[in-house]
Amino acid sequence: MKIQGKMFLWLALFILAIAVLYGLWAKEPVGTSALFMAFGLSIMIGYYLVFTAKRVDTGAGDNKDAEVADDAGELGFFSPHSWQPLVLAGGCAMAFLGVVFGWWLLFISLPVLLVGIFGWTFEYYHGENQNQ
């Protein structure tokens, strides 16, 4: 994580230099402010990664002599049979169509979105999959 944090901090410095150069040369406020916001986002991500790297064990990405197999292992638990992402995608599609056809469709899609979010979050707190 240390390497990734340093990469984001160097990227932030590059974006800052480009933002200043663009702001002075183009005198266009929208692009200049977008570049400064990208600078801020890179600083936040880089700081988080460097801050977190001090508190966790050194990973294979931080070891110069590491092999690819050193980083292998379990990445997390992914639900193999969940229908909730489909419900959530349907609610998002309806919400985005609300921008095209009318804001009233957003109010219809809101319950579908909530069912998808809460269903996906609490899927393993009840029913037959409770103890997984």
Notes on the protein architecture:
It is a single chain. This protein is mainly α. It is 65% helix and 0% strand.
Briefly summarize what is shown.
This protein is an all-alpha fold and about 130 residues long.
SSE layout and pairing:
Elements: H1 2-26, H2 29-53, H3 84-101, H4 104-121
**What's the shape?**
flat
Give the overall average pLDDT. Answer: 89
Order of secondary-structure elements: HHHH
- Helical content stands at 55-70%
Major sheet description? none
What percent strand? under 5%
The secondary structure category is: mainly alpha
Integer-rounded radius of gyration: 22 Å
User: How many strand elements?
Assistant: 0
Q: What's the tally of helices?
A: 4
Distance between the termini: 30 Å
Low-confidence stretches: none
Please tag this protein with its features.
mainly alpha, 0% strand, 65% helix, 4 helices, 132 residues
